[in-house]
Amino acid sequence: GTQAGLIAGRLGIPTISTGNLLRAAMRDGTEVGQKVKGYMDAGKLVPDELMIDLVQERLGQGDCQNGYVLDGFPRTLPQAKALSSFATIDAALSIEVSDEEIEQRMEGRRICTVCQTTYHVDDNPPKVEGVCDKCGGKLAIRKDDTHEVVENRLHIYHEETEPVKEYYRQEGLLLAVRGQKKLADTTSLVFEALGISL
Ligand code: AMP
C-alpha cells in the first residue's frame, strides 16, 4: 500500500486500493460494506464477483482515464482473468517479503482512521505518535492485523494469491523486487524495476 501510494504520487495517477474501498464502504454502512464485514474481519477473501464489479466500476470513473495503480487486486486467478477482460495492465509488481517479516510488519502497522494512510511504529512512524502526518486523523490498528488473522491471511495468500504471480509471469508482465528493511530502499528498487526516475 505504501509503495503503491509513492508510485501513484510520482506518476500523478490515483491508487485504487480495494482494501481501502471496502473499509470505506464498511465505515459508511453501505450495502457492500455490510456484505463484506464478516469476510474482512476474519481475514478471508471477499467473493470474486463482488470484487470484480467493484473494481470495474471504479476504473470506469474519470480520474482513472490516464492510468492507476491497483493495490490489493487482483488477489485470485478469476480476478486476474476478469481484469484482463476490461483493463490493460502494463506491469504486475511483486514485493517479496518472508512470512516472518510480514507478521512483524502487520503487527506494527497503524492506519489513519480518516484518510487511511499507513504507518509503521518503527519503520515509518508518524511525526507525532498516534496522529496522521497528512490529515491529523487518529491512527488505529487494523482489526485484521492481529496475530491470528494475519496467520489466516498469509495462508490464504499462499493458496489463492500466489498463483496470480505465475499468471503475470506467463503474460510477461511480472516484476519482482525484494522488500528491504528501509522503506526508501524498497522504493528505489521498485522505481528502478518500473523504469521510472525517483
Ligand atoms: P488489504 O487492505 O488489501 O489488506 O485488504 C483487506 C481485506 O479486504 C482482505 O483481507 C480481504 O478481506 C478484503 N479484500 C481486499 N482486496 C480484496 C480482493 N482483491 N479480493 C478479495 N478480498 C479482498
Task: Tell me what you see in this structure.
The chain starts with a helix and ends with a helix. The chain has helices spanning 2-11, 18-27, 31-42, 48-59, 77-86, 99-107, 147-170, 183-194; strands at residues 15-17, 69-71, 92-96, 109-112, 118-120, 139-140, 174-178. Strands 5-4-6 form a 3-stranded antiparallel sheet. With 198 residues, the protein is an alpha/beta fold. The longest helix has 24 residues, at 147-170. The mean pLDDT is 95. It binds adenosine monophosphate. Residues 18-19, 22, 39-40, 43-46, 51, 72-73, 75, 79, 144, 153 line the site of adenosine monophosphate.
List keywords for this structure.
three-stranded antiparallel beta sheet, 198 residues, alpha/beta, 13% strand, globular
Overall pLDDT level: 95
Bound molecules: adenosine monophosphate
Percent strand equals 5-15%
Name the quaternary structure. single chain
Classification by helices and strands? alpha/beta
Instruction: Give the overall form.
Output: globular
Main beta-sheet annotation: 3 strands, antiparallel
* Helical content band: 40-55%
> SSE order, as H and E?
HEHHHEHEHEEEHEH
Q: Alpha-carbon distance between the termini? A: 18 Å
Q: What is the C-alpha radius of gyration, as a whole number of Å?
A: 16 Å
Low-confidence stretches: none
State the strand order across the main sheet. 5-4-6
Strand elements, count:
7
Specify the number of helices.
8
Architecture blueprint of SSEs:
Elements: H1 2-11, E1 15-17, H2 18-27, H3 31-42, H4 48-59, E2 69-71, H5 77-86, E3 92-96, H6 99-107, E4 109-112, E5 118-120, E6 139-140, H7 147-170, E7 174-178, H8 183-194
Parallel strand pairs: 1-2, 3-7
Antiparallel strand pairs: 4-5, 4-6
Helix pairs in contact: 2-3, 4-5, 6-7
This protein binds adenosine monophosphate.
